[in-house]
Design goal:
Strand order of the largest sheet: 1-2-4-6
Radius of gyration: 16 Å
Shape: globular
Number of strands: 6
Distance between the termini: 21 Å
Strand content: 15-25%
Largest sheet: 4 strands, mixed
Order of helices and strands: HHHHEEEHHHEEHEH
Length: about 180
């Protein structure tokens, strides 16, 4: 998947709208997996200085779901637990939206307002760690621990999902089978 995504994000749209491969990868994911258009995708990206370990926030009103996305676009076979710790950090920070609002970048501040409204309406939060690599064995153990901790917390209804290279390929193939008007 890495080479496919690398090829896709080298297209003009991604190069002109996103300054680095990390943002391009998250944008590619939003467009190809969550089926967002170019405007929706750009609106969801919060990556940059002051992003507080949150690369994108996508609120799916149809499913009453908030997606907090952390992307890691790596060429290597495996990745350690560092990206998981970043997701855990974002989960901890979301528990205090007011403090997060004070320290976040402008794009994230806007999304925090939308996130607060969605939480008032009992939306569920899905923390997605998307990566083109596979977790190391120790990182997989950390993933299970973090998933358990997040699911048992009563602050809000949340879960943590790893979208690694294998899952990414499955989701991409699944998305291709749907009716996608901007791909002809």
């Amino acid at each position: 998947m890495y080479n496919k995504i690398l090829s896709d994000i080298s297209q003009q749209y991604y190069r002109e709208n996103y300054p680095n491969d990390g943002q391009r990868f998250v944008a590619w994911y939003l467009r190809n997996i969550h089926n967002l258009d170019t405007i929706e995708t750009k609106d969801c990206i919060t990556d940059g200085a002051g992003d507080k370990q949150i690369d994108a926030v996508y609120i799916d009103n149809d499913a009453s779901m908030i997606y907090i996305i952390q992307g890691k676009f790596y060429a290597g076979e495996t990745v350690n637990a560092e990206p998981l710790r970043e997701v855990l950090s974002s989960w901890i920070q979301i528990k205090d939206l007011q403090k997060l609002q004070e320290n976040a970048n402008e794009k994230l501040r806007i999304k925090i307002n939308e996130l607060a409204t969605a939480l008032e309406d009992d939306y569920e939060i899905c923390f997605e760690l998307i990566t083109t690599s596979e977790l190391t064995e120790s990182a997989k153990a950390d993933l299970q621990t973090f998933q358990k901790e997040i699911s048992e917390d009563t602050t809000f209804n949340a879960n943590l999902v790893l979208v690694d290279n294998e899952t990414l390929k499955f989701k991409y193939d699944e998305a291709l089978n749907k009716n996608r008007p901007y791909i002809n």
